[in-house]
Amino acid sequence: MDAILAIVAGIVAAAAVYLLLQRRLLQVVLGVALLSHAANTVVFLSAGLNGILDGAHMPIIPRGETALATPHADPLPQAFVLTAIVIAFGVMAFLIALAWRTYMETGTDDLSEIWKPEEETAGPMEGAKQESTPPTSS
Amino acid sequence: MTFDSTFLVVAPVAIPLITATLCLFTARRLRLQQLISTIGSLILFGASLVLLLGVAGGEIWTAHLSNWHAPIGIVLVADRLAASMVLLTGICAATIGFFSLSQVAARDQASGFHSLFHFLMAGVCGAFLTGDLFNLFVWFEVMLLSSFVLLGLGGGKKRIQGAVKYVTLNLIGSAIFLVSIGVLYGQLGTLNMADVAAKLADESAEIHGSAIVAVVGLLVAFALKAGVFPLFFWLPASYHAPSPATSAIFAGLLTKVGVYALIRTCTLILPPDAEVVLTVLAWIGVATMFIGVMGAAVQIEFRKVLSFHIISQIGYMVLGLAIYTPLAIGAAVYFMAHNIIAKSNLFLVAGLARRIAGTEDLKALGGLANAKYWWGPWIMIAFFIPAMSLAGLPPLSGFFAKLGILMGGLEVVEQGGTPSLDPVSAAIAVGVALLVGLFTLFSMIKIWNEAFWKPAKQRADGVAIGVDRPTPVALDPRPVPVRFSWFVPSLVMAGITVVMGLFAGPILAWYEAMATELLTPELYRAAVLQGVEP
Amino acid sequence: MRSIILSSMIKALMPLMAVASVFLLLRGHDEPGGGFIGGLLLATGLVGYAVVFGPVAARTLLHVTPRMVVTIGLAIAVISGWIGWVIAGDPFLTSRGHWVTIHLTAESYLKIGPSLGFDIGVYLLVAGSVMTFVFHMMEADSGIEVRES
């Protein structure tokens, strides 16, 4: 079980790196998502899952008992993974929104277009013109 | 209800969280929100001051969250290093918070600037105080998420460009951090920093090599967040883009959290036989210093110059850490303290210059040294003190910070080297540090000449562009008169820089004592793992 | 997305999902479940409603803004963290020793304590933030369609 999941994490990470190196923003976003999945898998693995196939118990105290049945899986990494998933979820929501905003602002999904430097001939009033949208009433 | 040490350790995290929540509740009423935000920052400052005074004598205070004891539960630890960083956070929260009231667009303030600001403060304080690696990850993410939104707040192509790079690189850093945490837990079965340190230092136990690899992975992740060579390029791409108040917090605090985590990991967790890591860090520090200052030399935008200088100064801190003597580490932490104040302040001044003159381009700026207006001298003072401190001119704080690190390096040369650093490398590092100091002075003089003393460009009708009339930049379509309150945060920070320089002797001695304590990690372990069987 | 089957399904399913989410939330202390998964389920129901009837209808149904849900959730979570401290001076987030068991019938009981409060906070926060995000994206999406046509 450990070995299989480790290989899976490796493959996912490789796919993530491939996507991260693409020019399109959407693929980069997906790459970041896959990378966090790979990382989560590694954390999940740290519990040592080999025991599970050998009949280890869930780390939940059954109703009416007072202690865990041994052997049981380590519950802590699962808590870590849950936290990490929640965080990754929040980050993804933000990233997708950012990608959307980027597309709206620049009209392109191509990162080399997005990062093309703006014209260097900005006069002193340029910045003001560019950014002064009238403030909405607060 | 007891206001004991446990309460004081939790307070710097809890106060900003409460403030942020209250700010969200009052989202519709800007004035009230501003009031709550200011009061929250002041309380945070007060609490952090009390915390520092409490642990100043060398005690280590802990708070076992939800009464679960270490190493199982999450523990917050306030030693001198953490408490002094929290105090600096409190100072930044109070000054930059005040600055933001007048210098962040009302629209952005109404759409959540203040609550994000306090979430960021909670993340920063949490990262400084936590004694648990996974919890550190969580605080890093709290910090990152709020900084992502702050960075994108207000929109505009420049901000989006910066945000994309910043977000992607930092998320890759987070993934590396998380993988390292997973491997470390798999090997050691604990993530409490003190417990990890105890298990790694235990020579009788057999440690698998992958645990060491995981520790190095942690260092890589922290180095990325600190903006160290060769992982720095997200920093100059993004720090100049957001509103000046936001970039001042970023510049002052965010990278320093990375450096703090590096210091904590190297002194506490890194096993004693892994000197090669310190050797590598020393060279990385030298490269970071040099590359940063070279990058700054070619920039012509106020905040971009300053952004590259952040990198260069992170290099000094990393070098100080890598020299690994009490004097050098103490000086590195003093450097961090000096840099948090001076660098944030310079970003504030850059924001004021932009507000008054309407541009940040050093070619277009000019004539800020202006006796015609009452604000001329004030903005000059506000810039000159932190800039010269950064350049390392005595008697300001930056001089003593650099002096401490150089003396640490020369000590190594004198003693004929340490296990991690041979005398020749130390001598080279000291030489580069001196050279970089010179270039820093060059950059600061460049800004000083271009923005302040060069005559302002004239319009066709003879009016000096920008300077004769404050220009609205992204804040308000109508020009508003320059107010003295704009300069107060900068002047307060400049005052702190001067005081830190004047009392450099006692402060450096205190930091050196702190570093001695850091280099005896048994103290930290004992304080955290009180009453726990090894 | 107007479809008779989907819209009548979602009308029946959404209240069910909301009830199930509360069940998951309350069950989370002794058995699998909890605030996060409950909140996700609640949000799924409402997002389904928004997919069928549009985000505006979903907002009307909700009465408060999703952002306010987040805020209230956050406030409940932070406040419940301090309960132990107010009562007994315990560290932040302590719930050990502050549980109250209410016996409803002979067999069923309800355990109430600070960590339930924290979980309710998480529940609202997760549901609120998912809705904030999804509604926002849906509105942005429909906005662009209007502009293009």
CA-based shape of chain C: flat
Count of β-strands of chain B: 2
User: How is the biggest beta sheet of chain C arranged?
Assistant: 2 strands, antiparallel
Low-confidence spans of chain C: 144-149
Poorly predicted runs of 5 or more residues of chain B: 471-475
Overall pLDDT metric of chain C: 83
The share of residues in helices of chain C is over 70%
Question: Going across the major beta sheet of chain B, what is the strand order?
Answer: 1-2
How far is the N terminus from the C terminus of chain B?
33 Å
> How many helical elements of chain B?
19
Number of strands of chain C: 2
How is the topology of this model organized?
The complex is a heterotrimer of chains A (138), B (534) and C (149).
Chain A: H1 2-20, H2 25-45, H3 50-53, H4 75-106, H5 111-114, H6 126-131
Helix pairs in contact in A: 1-2, 2-4
Chain B: H1 5-25, H2 30-55, E1 61-64, E2 75-78, H3 80-103, H4 106-129, H5 133-152, H6 157-188, H7 193-201, H8 209-226, H9 234-238, H10 244-269, H11 275-298, H12 302-323, H13 326-357, H14 375-391, H15 397-414, H16 423-453, H17 488-502, H18 504-518, H19 521-528
Antiparallel strand pairs in B: 1-2
Chain C: H1 4-27, H2 35-53, H3 55-62, H4 66-88, E1 100-103, E2 109-112, H5 114-148
Antiparallel strand pairs in C: 1-2
